[in-house]
Structures are given as structure tokens and as C-alpha cells.
Amino acid sequence: MIVRKIAFVASRVDVAASLMAEELIRITGSEEFSIGNAKAWLSRPEGEVLYAQSEEDLGADGADLIVILSRHSGVPGRPIITTHVSGNFGDAPFGGEPYTLSNACPPFMKLFLQEAEKRAPEVGFDIGFESTHHGPTLDTPLAFVEIGCGPEEWSNRSAARVVVESSLSALRRMLSADFAGFTHAVGFGGPHINSYFTKIQLKSPELAIGQALRRHDSEKASERAIRMAFERNFGPTEVAIVDWKGLRGKEKSRILGILEEMGVRVMRARNIAHSL
User: Fold this and answer.
1) 224 and 168, same structural domain?
2) Residues 136 and 229 in one domain
3) Is the pTM of this model over 0.85?
4) What element of type H or E holds 124?
5) Are residues 99 and 63 part of one domain?
6) Which of 16, 86, 139, 175 has fewest C-beta within 10 Å?
7) Is the per-residue pLDDT at 12 higher than 90?
């Protein structure tokens, strides 16, 4: 998939997003700028991005890729920088459509975490790869890049700088002429921030995870949504990475049955992570 136009989105009601927007303008010098041969711009919608109904609501219509600058709440309760795609494997209590996923961008998320790993420790932050969750559910490939987990971290300008610099560096790498790409994969099982998946994103020279179904959502995940995860993953995806002990027996059997029917290659997350 060719990326020629990139929208950075930062809600005005999100403290962390607003700080990252300031850093983006400071670093690039403008709300409109170039990354390699791609045109990029910053959009500042008034409302919460989770409940956007369209790319136009985000000021991102016409973009080939959307990078959403955002705060992160909840686990693990310590300073962390994360990335994920939005979507709902089950119902939709926090925006988006039920049983529907946005398009993911595995190479950007992988490269973002690799770049963040270089910078985050110096400002006292961990990094992590999150599972697919909440809205919006859009057709344009997108990725959230986030600062968590509370008000103190959301107001940390150094962390905002790290997220912006890591995003720009990841995009430069992804858009460079010599970028060879990765084998895209879908993750299954384990906690919301899965250490196996995070390690694979950081260390595997070949695999890049986009969509990821956490254990918490596995029971209510529809077969339609599971199949959609492979269709909305930035191009053909034929690899499933399964956290074997991170799924309950009944749900693991059901999901593995769907994957077998689809004919995708199933790899064990623990084995991959331990080999890196």
C-alpha cells in the first residue's frame, strides 16, 4: 500500500494530544510538512477521537495513513508509551462499530516501538504494544500513539517529544526507498499489553503485528471480526501469532478452528519471543 498523505490527529480535549501537537509543530516548524515524499498535516478536532464517525470528523479525509496522538489510561499504571489500532472484536462501549475493526498499519507500529525504545528510557517511560480496542472504526489505515497512564504523564513534555520524534523517525524509515517491509501478522491471546507481542515488535527482523485480540475480548469476538483482522492489516496477512497460555481452552479451540479453516500459518508467541 502506497502512503503519500499522512494526517496527524490531536484532539483539543486531550491534554496529552495537545502537548504532542505542540511538539510536532515545534519539530517540523508547521502544521503542514513533508516526510520523505509524503505530505503530512496536523488536524485538531474539537471532540474525542474515539467517537468519530468518519475520516472527515478527524480532519483526515484524503489521508493514506492516520496517526492519532492520544493519552493512554489504565494498565499498567506506570509511565508508558504505547501504540495500537482501534476496533471492536465484540461490542462497542467506547466508540466505533461493534464487531468491526479499523485498518491497521503493522510496519508503522513496529517501527514506532523500535524508535521509542531508543528514546523512552531516558525520560523514564516503558513501551508497550496494545491490543485492538475502542473506536473509531475507519477504512483508512491508522495507529494510535499514546502517553500513559495518568495526568502526570499526560503533561510530560519530554514524553510528548519522544512520541513525536519516534513517529516521524518510524515514518521516514517506512517511506524510504530501501524499506523492504515485514511479514504482517495478527496476534491472539494474553493481556491487554502482551509482553510477547511487544518483544516480537521490537526484536523480530521479519514479523510485524497489526491487529491483536486480547484474552478479555476472546469470548465475545465474532468469527466475522476474526476474519476481518486478516483483511484489515495493511495488505495480505497469512500469519497468526498465538499466546497459547493466554487463551482459555474453549475459546482457544474455537479460534484455532477458525484459523485452520482460513488456512493461515499459526505460530506460538512464546516460542518466537524466546528465540529473539
Assistant:
1) no
2) no
3) yes
4) none
5) yes
6) 139
7) yes
